[in-house]
Amino acid sequence: EVQLVESGGGLVQPGGSLKLSCAASGFTFSGSAMHWVRQASGKGLEWVGRISSKPNNYATAYAASVKGRFTISRDDSKNTAYLQMNSLKTEDTAVYYCTIWEDWGQGALVTVSS
Amino acid sequence: DIQMTQSPSSLSASVGDRVTITCRASQGISNYLAWFQQKPGKAPKSLIYAASTLQSGVPSKFSGSGSGTDFTLTISSLQPEDFATYYCQQYNSYPYTFGQGTKLEIK
Questions:
Q1: Is the dihedral of CA A1, B53, A33, B69 positive or negative?
Q2: Does the beta carbon of A76 lie under 8 angstroms from any beta carbon of chain B?
Q3: pLDDT by residue (tens digit) across B44-81?
Q4: Which of A22, A92, B64, B69 is the most buried (most CB within 10 A)?
């Protein structure tokens, strides 16, 4: 059974940083691209970014709204993907999901507020 | 960026009805189109990828069609558990983009 479990969410002040983790199991993590998607309360889904697998050189891609502030990484030895979020803004407040599209985590709530 | 526009934004239907949701891309995306279902407080669930391929375990009451810029999701014989919000998503090019969602409500 595929499991994706996000952790690391919480309350952070504007301008601050937070790092989310996504622990994966039940599939070949090292061979899978990992995506992050977010959803502000009452709003739609927004793709945040992606990290490819090792054969694709761990290539990353980001939404314009987070480019230069967010960094996606992975540790295949730990079956874990990460989302490092810097220079956070109030508009980054959302539930953040990691996903391989056919399966999704339960989400981690990030609240950016003073 | 490719813009995805869903219609309608909301839809009221009765149990047993058949409904169709449309999704239009601002430029051609071949068949790189997925559909997701989301219930309140839950993560999205993948229904369809490649415009018309059902995800494993998804009942055949869900069907998708289209190519290029125009796509549809059809749900037949609506049941109470089908009332949710549905999103289309293009994965033809980065940044991947979602439609704004269609909220399917019980009439």
A1: negative
A2: no
A3: 999 999 999 999 999 999 999 999 999 999 999 999 99
A4: A22
